[in-house]
Amino acid sequence: MKAHIIAVATTVLFVAGVGVSYGATKKPQPSAATYRDKEPQDAAKALTEIALVQAGKNGSWERIGAGRVYYLGGLKAQGQSVFDAILSGKHEDSDVYRIARIYAEAGEWAKARPLFDRFIAGNRDDAKAHAEIGAHYLLQGDRATAERMFDRAFELENDNPWITEYVAGAYLGVKPQE
Questions:
Q1: For the chain, where do the domains classified as CATH 1.25.40.10 start and end?
Q2: 3-class secondary structure, 64
Q3: What is the rounded CA–CA span in Å between residue 160 and residue 93?
Q4: Helices and strands, counts by H and E, the chain
Q5: Regarding the domain delimited by 92-178, which CATH topology (the fold level of the hierarchy) does it fall under?
Q6: 108 falls in which pLDDT band (50, 70, 90)?
Q7: In a 10 Å sphere around its CB, with 0-12 CB exposed, 13-18 middle and 19+ buried, how is residue 22 labelled?
Q8: Which of 48, 63, 103, 115 could tie 111 with a disulfide, CB 3.0–4.6 Å?
Q9: How far apart are CA 71 and CA 56, in angstroms?
Q10: Which of 76, 111, 81 is nearest to 96 (CA)?
């Protein structure tokens, strides 16, 4: 009987501990209260804060997405803070590339260019990146650099329609599509 009571008590404590643990680790979720009847900027801030928590520490692409919302939505300091946190820690080359794209989308070539250059220096065999980054160079008026990058892209891969479209579009002023 004593063993039975100990087993029941242990089970109750275990279940209670799992419940507390689950409640403590549950990520926030958006609800109508997060955005209804709020000013657009306040709703966006609340939702983006939740998205950052949902992304966690290891979700760099997701955090970059939240930073993009901030940055392109006019909350540049908050977006820059997200980008700086990612770039100051251990990160993938693709994180550099994604942040460069956001700066380019924001029309901030001076911030995009060094990140694009940094990415391409470590990814010399990425044909699509050469075409896309070359397109950005052409759109900024640097045709010589763009065409060197286009040459490299086609040298690596000359039968990819996306690459050909990035290059063609750049000559018509069309930004590369992600």
A1: 92-178
A2: helix
A3: 22
A4: 10, 0
A5: 1.25.40
A6: very high
A7: exposed
A8: 103
A9: 19
A10: 111
> pTM of the predicted model, to two decimals?
0.81
Contact between 54 and 24 (Cβ < 8 Å): no
pLDDT at 4: 46
Confidence category of residue 89, pLDDT binned at 50, 70, 90: confident
- How confident is the model over 155-169, as a mean pLDDT? 96
Residues 99/115, Cβ–Cβ less than 8 Å: yes
Q: Is the pLDDT of residue 130 over 80?
A: yes
- Note whether 153 and 120 are within 8 A (CB): no
Length of the chain: 178
Would you give the DSSP letter of residue 56? T
* Residues 125, 156: Cα–Cα separation, whole Å: 7
* φ, ψ of residue 167 in degrees (nearest 5): -65, -50
Give the separation between CA 63 and CA 60, rounded to whole angstroms: 5
Q: How far is 8 from 11, CA to CA, in rounded Å?
A: 5
For position 27, what pLDDT does the model report? 72
* Placement of tokens 């692409």 in the chain: 61
Is residue 73 predicted with pLDDT exceeding 90? Answer: yes
